[in-house]
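User: Fold this; tokens only.

Assistant: Input:
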Amino acid sequence: MNLSQVISFIEVACILIMSSAIYRRCFNRDRRFPIDDMGFVWLILADIYILIPFMMWLILGCEYSPVHGRLYQIQPEWDEVAYIIKIGLSYITGFSFIYLFLIHKVRILPNSGIPEVDRYHVIGAATIVFGSLVIQLAVQGSGVIDKPSSYIEQYFVVQQLPLNIRQLIKISSGWANVAMVILIVALVQRWPRQRWLLFFYIVYLVAIYDPTGSRAGVTLGLFSLLVSWHVLVRPFSVKSILLVGGMGLIVFSILGWYRNYGSLGDLFLLSRYDLSAGEFDSLWGNAVEVLRSRTSVQPQIPWYIRYEEFFGFVPSQVLWFPKNSLSNWFLDEFHPLYKDQGGGLAFGIIAQAIVGGGIFEGFIRGAALGYILGKVMTFFRSKMDRWWVFPLQVYLLTWMFQNVRSTSFALLTLVVQLVLPALIITYGIGLVIRPRV
């Protein structure tokens, strides 16, 4: 083992130590596993996306097999892996220094508890969900959208639609996702009075899941339930959370394998050299590819792509430049054929720092996230007497992975474009139908 490898393992240990410190502070504050803490959840997700592909690479003997596709072709080297770990450490260090400073200002939950989402706001949220369903059925019935034959083709079919239709589908389904979280919180708050509805929702989630399609719907729905139950009904033990989290990662990876290869039986024929971390490996591959590109020729990224996360919520029609994302830029530059076939790839915060300022940018972005999430947690805990605060917190927690998987401030677009309008509409409907006293 050379010096570079030893340093990498020390850096991994530093990541784990800082994560443990934040966990301990959050746990001591609430006396339960901090699954509802915004900063802690981001930190765990960052650890997963940084460390799981690294550990998998070590298990494989630092060499990928043909089953890994793109990673087999690029075969990362130790110096590249060491730099990726440094980028990850820079994010975690910047985040931890700021978040540990702000975390003591976050209050414990008030003794008065979290107010129940009343039936008028439940009706408002249900109206949004129903309206989104009507829009989707109308679009499908209009004949303007073809029925996809595969998971990849879903994205290709949608991209062929006119811009205004794509925007309508995105906005309506996004508002419905926010409204569904409000309904989930309301269901859990009514436990055990309306337990049958909660059981029905769980069965519904499992029943509608398509193993050849996206895993997001069922995963985010179940996670919303888990967080709501943990805070509103009864906290799960640390062992239970770790067990459920570990099993969830395994099932998530297995479902990804089935979606890609169409067979679970083949799993039993694999050796350890064929194991894959799925999506986590994919983002790892992005980082390696842009790193190699940077060492030869610094990628030239237009500013409107580089900083798209800060104005992604602005409609394309009012912008004087083409709206694009780093993930689309990456496909155009590195995998145009795959994109033409309808394929897509998330980009990842490690690759984002590499195409920017490297380790320094990772530190700054991590520190900014630590500051923002620390302030957001302080706000949430101080305003927990408002009916909309906890559903908003649960929604942001369920989508926090986008601040690691996509870009470091990806949630900004979701908040402005989807969350705020959905909450306003829900409140407005509740206000209109509420009887005048």
